[in-house]
Amino acid sequence: MSRVKIGIIGGTGLERFLEKPKRARIKTPYGSSSHISIGILDGHCVAFLPRHGSKHETPPHKINYRANVWSLKKLGVERVISTNAVGAINERYKPGDIVVPSDIIDFTKTRLTTFYDAAPVVHIDVTNPYCPQLRESLSDSAKKQNQTYWDGSVLAATEGPRFETPAEIKMMRILGCDIVGMTGSPEVFLARELEICYAAICFVSNMAAGIQNRLTTEEVISMAKKRTSILLEVIKNVVNEMPKKRNCSCFEALKDAKI
Length: 259
Known about the structure:
Rossmann fold; two-stranded antiparallel ribbon; 11 strands; 25% helix; 259 residues; alpha/beta
């Protein structure tokens, strides 16, 4: 476990691609994490955490995000790659496209978004919410997949578990959002508070409400199955090519944040 430097947070099922996986459930001050599979991916030891649980039993608004991120930190993880299914707000994007977001707008309502509810008071900097170094590696890898790919996108994070209304999507489009999903926040902010590098790679599963007539979970699941192999190749490339040394500021995010 001391060699686990890379964590992957994603949908249920990616753990089957790990060699010699061992399952663990880490106890944290915030409760127990989802079951984590620790194994070998292309010769590298990684930790995979299915955010919805091993049987996809936990809805997005009930995920224990703090326990999940804390558990990865406890394992020694320094970088987290997140995979997300998203809807397309930007009508240039189409189902099946790959997206690496560069910014996020948080529309969630009830989630616990910080580890700092008491002293010391901490104001974390999220000028670059996604780690620039890790995001660049994901972008470079995604470009090699011969798939339609979008960079520099803005992700709208919503509460769920319902899909959004057409009016909500219209509002998000006016605000500059390109894609929408239910699991982007608070993972990205919690990782920064623990000085973990975090970046996301998304696949468009559907057009957002009002752009297509009806949204179903079946189309999300179907597209996830089609895009799993592509996401896996992107992640493998990043795991193999990412420099060991972190040259970003994520690892010292708390340096000037505490009062």
